């Protein structure tokens, strides 16, 4: 085992034994060994404010999660071919948070698996295979999930776009084709689905469905204009397809105002996909759908996942939902999100390199721009790394990696929000005189963490 203080040895072990295309965050990576609520601690016990991680939804090292896991592991942990009240209890609690037409749960082990399953359900129900999805989307790391993730299949060395997938422009009303000054922008973005549907039909693939992150995250923390999704869903359904909402990033109260992102849009999906926060770090994904779609799928071979819906997973998922309610975390996300966004808007008006501030609750993006308004990729890398020097963990996102991503656990408090805002002000004040980040032979920025530079 490595000495806990020897970060260099851990870094070397990783270079020796891990794949090179697993990136590491920050020029000076952090080693984190303890956590508590929205705080993390490194090998020297130094604290970091976690303003990035959405997986520890109810906070790191939550005592109720630890207690329920210890209790269940001390009893038994088995699969869904045996009866256990924890499985139906979890399903019922989750369904109580969702619209009435969603009645059936499938438990799996990750967001990827839930999206992979969503593809199978869409095909089983419609009998065809074509999919429409917004550009720059991400739905997971398996062959099937990559096929519907433009963020991956279009990268150099990626598998490319499948013939049965049609991309539509993401509904980004800051940088996209239709901007915020256009009151018709939701409809205009939705209309882009028409030629995509026509193309799938012409190629003989038909329309199995539409899949989108309700608020695109890797696409750049985008809040589509209200009414976008219902308009898209109407077109997809008219073409015989089903509508899948990937709520991995947006679900379970993060948005403050809404428990799920589709509520903001006034849309009713046929399938909702949940991941990351639902297990608070324990691997758990859930697909929720209608009885009709589940019945179509049930006409095929048995669906079974060894670990999906294990007794332990169901007890943890159930506990996460209770903690969100018991601790008023959705409300906290709304209050702290408002405090953050108000502070960020003041920063936006003080710094020319802040082009846009957007978000809802604790799902926020700060788009950094160069003096000509183009994507401020270098600035973003610099700011992210300097925030890390201030021991505040935030991320970056977007097709050109120029959008700061702020997405803390829902436990964050007012003084933490103010700390983020003050540190960001200090760092942005440095931006004027910084040199561009160095680039290696492969064109990677130093902070890419590829190990080649
Ligand atoms: N969908 C979205 C929107 C995601 O952000 C992610 C993970 N970043 C996934 C799916 C895949 O989830 P997992 O990594 O748990 O398989």
TrEMBL record:
<comment type="similarity">
    <text>Belongs to the class-III pyridoxal-phosphate-dependent aminotransferase family.</text>
</comment>
<protein>
    <submittedName>
        <fullName>Aminotransferase class III-fold pyridoxal phosphate-dependent enzyme</fullName>
    </submittedName>
</protein>
């Amino acid at each position: 085992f490595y000495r806990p203080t020897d970060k260099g040895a851990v870094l070397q072990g990783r270079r020796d034994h891990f794949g090179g295309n697993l990136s590491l965050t920050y020029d000076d990576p952090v080693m984190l060994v303890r956590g508590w609520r929205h705080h993390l601690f490194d090998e020297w016990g130094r604290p970091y404010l976690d303003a990035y991680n959405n997986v520890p939804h109810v906070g790191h090292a939550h005592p109720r999660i630890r207690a329920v896991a210890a209790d269940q592991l001390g009893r038994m942990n088995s699969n869904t071919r045996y009866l256990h009240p924890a499985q139906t209890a979890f399903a019922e609690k989750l369904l109580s948070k969702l619209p009435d037409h969603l009645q059936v749960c499938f438990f799996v082990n990750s967001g990827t698996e839930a999206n992979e399953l969503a593809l199978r359900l869409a095909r089983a129900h419609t009998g065809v295979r074509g999919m429409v999805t917004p550009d720059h989307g991400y739905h997971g790391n398996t062959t099937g999930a990559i096929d519907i993730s433009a963020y991956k299949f279009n990268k150099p060395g990626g598998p490319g776009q499948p013939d049965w997938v049609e991309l539509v422009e993401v509904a980004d009303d800051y940088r996209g084709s239709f901007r915020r000054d256009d009151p018709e922008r939701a409809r205009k973005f939705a209309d882009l689905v028409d030629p995509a549907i026509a193309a799938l039909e012409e190629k003989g693939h038909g329309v199995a469905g539409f899949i989108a992150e309700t608020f695109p995250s890797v696409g750049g923390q985008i809040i589509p204009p209200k009414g976008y999704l219902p308009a898209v869903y109407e077109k997809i359904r008219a073409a015989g397809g089903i509508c899948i909402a990937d709520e991995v990033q947006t679900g379970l109260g993060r948005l403050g105002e809404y428990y799920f992102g589709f509520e903001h849009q006034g849309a009713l999906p046929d399938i909702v996909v949940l991941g990351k926060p639902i297990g608070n770090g324990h691997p758990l994904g859930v697909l929720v759908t209608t009885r009709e779609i589940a019945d179509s799928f049930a006409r095929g071979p048995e669906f079974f996942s060894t670990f999906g819906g294990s007794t332990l997973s169901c007890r943890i998922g159930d506990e996460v939902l209770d903690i969100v309610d018991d601790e008023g975390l959705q409300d906290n996300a709304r209050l702290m999100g408002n405090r953050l966004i108000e502070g960020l808007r003041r920063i936006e008006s003080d710094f020319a390199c802040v082009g846009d501030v957007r978000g809802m609750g604790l799902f926020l993006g700060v788009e950094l721009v160069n003096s000509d308004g183009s994507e401020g990729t270098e600035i973003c890398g610099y700011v992210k790394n300097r925030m890390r020097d201030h021991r505040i963990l935030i991320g970056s996102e977007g097709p050109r990696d120029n959008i700061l991503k702020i997405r803390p656990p829902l436990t964050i408090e007012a003084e933490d929000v103010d700390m983020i805002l003050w540190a960001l002000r200090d760092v942005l004040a440095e931006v004027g005189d910084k040199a561009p980040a160095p680039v290696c032979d492969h064109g990677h920025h130093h902070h890419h963490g590829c190990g080649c530079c």
